[in-house]
Amino acid sequence: MSLLRFKWPALFALVPVVAVLPMPDFWIFQLNYIGLYALTCLGLVLLTGVAGLTSFGQAAFVGIGAYTTAWLTLNLDISPWLTLFVGLALTGISALVVALITLRMSGHYLPLATIAWGLSLYYLMGNLDALGKYDGLLGLKSLSIGSFDIGQGRPFFVLTWLLLIASAMGFDRLLDSRVGRVIRSLKTGTQMAEAMGINTFRYKVITFVMAALLASVAGWLMAHFQRTVNPSAFGLKMGIEYLFMAVVGGVGHIWGAVVGAGLIKLLDDQLQVLLPKLIGTSGSYEVIVFGIALVMVLKYLPDGLWSLVARWVPRRDREVNWSAAAHLSERSKPARGELVLEVQDIRKQFGGLVAVNDIRFQIKAGQIVGLIGPNGAGKSTTFNLITGVLSLTSGVVRFRGETISGLPSREIARRGMARTFQHVKMIPDMTVLENVALGAYSRGHQGVLAGMLGTNAREEQQLFKEAQRQLERIGIGHLMHELAGNLAMGPQRLMEIARALCADPALLLLDEPAAGLRHKEKQGLADVLRQLRDEGVSILLVEHDMDLVMQVCDHLVVMEFGTLLTEGTPEEIQQSPVVRAAYLGTEH
Ligand code: ADP
Ligand code: MG
Questions:
Q1: pTM of the predicted protein model
Q2: Is the CB of 351 within 6 Å of ligand 1?
Q3: Domain 335-416+506-588 maps to which CATH number in 3.40.50.300, 3.40.50.1820, 3.20.20.80, 3.30.870.10?
Q4: 189 three-class SS
Q5: Is the CB of 348 inside a 6 Å radius of any atom of ligand 1?
Q6: Which end of the chain has fewer CB atoms at under 10 Å, N or C?
Q7: β-strands 144-145, 148-149: how paired?
Q8: Which atom in ligand 1 lies closest to the alpha carbon of residue 379?
């Protein structure tokens, strides 16, 4: 993917060249089908492979595009160049409705819901008189430009493949943008992205609709290619087959869509001829062969066939050329001594367990407050209550004078609170730089279209410059082009801190940042924390390394079994007999 990215013009130019090659018309005919299928599969790559949302219902959206143009051109004699947009609008609306209803479902419910959707649309198409019931609609015209007939052959090939390559280019660019990084993060869960101020549901919906629109374009093309539409091409079986193509080709890669569509189309044809000869009777035996092949691919080549090719395509480091980019704007920080966080009697019950029992404390601007206590004391739960990751059983949290309890974590994050997680949350197959840039999401504005068209370059440079700056500040600038998943535990934690800093927080919450760090890295971390405090950032620190805690904290809050044991300066806490007892387990 990375090598090919830089040859888009060549790829576009290849299409007319292939079209004039002296090859049999039958091959062009096959390539046309492959292009049509690949368009739909491309949407599935984005939806299922990248965003992790499995859909068996993609064929139904192909159907909406196809039936819309068929009915409108046949009955109202509207130009197909207009019906394309009507089809897109209808598909967009249906996809939006389906997405809003189903995308909140978790686990296996989404795939099941897409099956239900695929089935119901199939029966709708098959039972409406106006749509010709199961016979469908016949006698469509081929596409034409003026008096030039695009037909079913070479001109159609040029149109379809140019559209396919343009879509691939758009998606490829999109995935490499502010929005794309969010879409790539969806697969690994939404908690981290939400804590960076990102509305993940919105991006799931957007991804779903984009994939459906691409299917709709394929349907529009297919209707005029076959010059007839009938429900069987848009039913559940076809929905499964599209998913199958994407998975076999490589559902995580843009080119997997083309490889999968090509392979399955060709295999399908061969098997339909070959299998009856081998077995002696005719029947849909190819389905069985496909089933076996799918299991084999999933077992031995889970990233699809494209991953075999991708191995030979070198990965290219991002060019470091954003040094001239302007700084992102920064939020105004509270004045030193101003009250930043007020935690009032917050409580969390998990069933019968009171994990956090009416805890109260405050943080003032320019303070580093340590939250300490034995394992299971409720420190992480307190973090989750403050940042909105968990809902409060009772109590109030105020941030910079505003009550934030009850708000979703992304809203709290947008107000200037950033955090890390006790168990590192990252996107392993994105680079360190890209992971960290996610933290600066709320400071950017460029959306889907800008990402696709590449008009977001200036902002991208700003985001990456900020990400690099924070990585360097935390001491791991040299790792920025590594895949995050390849990092050792210590650097992973540092990466999370850099990501949180990218959000330009007024309050930074760090959950055990020094776990897994070497001595030198800990010293570096202590320096950075002090420097941040001097810049006016307040910090809430959960940490087991008492040296670090005593070194950097201005104030300590001690928890035990969910309750507030005591609070005070590091000196006071070190002297406290109750704290000693809690840590050493002696009676008090
Ligand atoms: P700490 O971070 O201080 O080690 P935690 O906040 O992680 O402690 O946990 C406090 C208590 O709450 C523990 O007894 C833990 O088992 C329990 N707990 C934490 N999260 C959950 C949860 N999601 N469901 C049920 N119990 C939980
Ligand atoms: Mg914890």
A1: 0.92
A2: no
A3: 3.40.50.300
A4: coil
A5: no
A6: C
A7: antiparallel
A8: 3
